[in-house]
Amino acid sequence: MPAAVPGIPAVRGSLDAVLTMRHAGTRRRLRLQYELAGPEDAPVALLAGGISAHRHGVANALDPSPGWAQGLLEAGRALDPARWRLLAFDYVGADGGLDAPIDTADQADAVALLLDALGIAQLAAFVGYSYGALVGLQLAVRHPQRLRRLLAVSGAHRPHPYAAAWRALQRKVVALGQLQCADEQGLSLARQLAMLSYRTPEEFAARFEARPALCNGRVRVAAEDYLDAAGAKFVARMPATAWLRLSESIDLHWVDPAQVRLPVSVIAVDGDRLVPLADAVALQEGLGCHGRLRVLRSEYGHDAFLKDTARMDALLASELAAPLPARP
């Protein structure tokens, strides 16, 4: 495994912005939090992850703790921070202070405001995973001049009805917890349900094959400790309001692929239960000559971006090295 590079230069900052939001009214005052890591003269790539991702993507001189995408941002990787300047930001609504519908289009507009403030005319690449892929697609439609290429990993132009139903049930679990004054328990259970959708039956079969145990007269299955730990970790860092509104945001997402006029690498995971391969194929077909589809087979399903890092990195390296066609 490549070693981390905690000594890479970095800056953190915030931007007070006014955003016209698609469903939440005009002139919303927001504070955008960001982190830039890497040499000042390096090409800039924006990295955007799932709804729980944040501005700290990689260990750096300012913050040596591992970032949320640490495995893909280490020395020798396709997005080596010694060769790229990596930009990440906290999503609109991530602090839980905005209790209103949030659209992926709002996130894309926030990115454009952030790029203006930082003096970045154009991103060399936008690498979006899960929710980040949705934001990247919106940016490609609404602000195409701000990025040269998009890598959309495990994200599509619309939510799949099965995945939307799964998220709706998770939100009902949170709401039930709130009604019972058990907010943390509700959010923890919602996260545990989500973990089942992020991973695959094959992974659970390999990791949790042990027979159930009897604990105080109750049956406890092998995966419960893992799920409990995932729920507790999530509750400690994600406000319930933020999770609810960003979960809704996934289901509000809708983009017409035909409106995209720049190179998009659609990277799908065979076995992803939230973004099925068929949806990635439909996205690539809608993109026409602007779309290129790559498929990774992984037991980690939707979480392959963060868990199957070596194979995912190889795909990213191939796509980032592909020549760009001349833009009209």
Write the topology of this structure.
Elements: E1 10-21, E2 25-37, E3 44-48, E4 85-89, H1 104-118, E5 125-129, H2 131-142, E6 150-153, H3 161-179, H4 183-198, H5 201-207, E7 213-215, E8 218-220, H6 224-235, H7 240-252, E9 264-270, H8 277-287, E10 291-297, H9 304-307, H10 309-321
Parallel strand pairs: 3-4, 3-5, 5-6, 6-9, 9-10
Antiparallel strand pairs: 1-2, 2-4, 7-8
Helix pairs in contact: 1-2, 3-4, 3-7, 4-6
What does this structure look like?
With 328 residues, this protein is α/β, with parallel strands linked by helices. Helices cover 37% and strands 20% of the residues. It has 10 helices and 10 strands. The protein has helices spanning 104-118, 131-142, 161-179, 183-198, 201-207, 224-235, 240-252, 277-287, 304-307, 309-321, and strands at residues 10-21, 25-37, 44-48, 85-89, 125-129, 150-153, 213-215, 218-220, 264-270, 291-297. Strands 1-2-4-3-5-6-9-10 form an 8-stranded mixed beta sheet, with helices on both faces. It has a two-stranded antiparallel sheet with strand order 7-8. α4 (183-198) crosses α6 (224-235). 45% of the residues are buried. The model has no long low-confidence stretch (mean pLDDT 94).
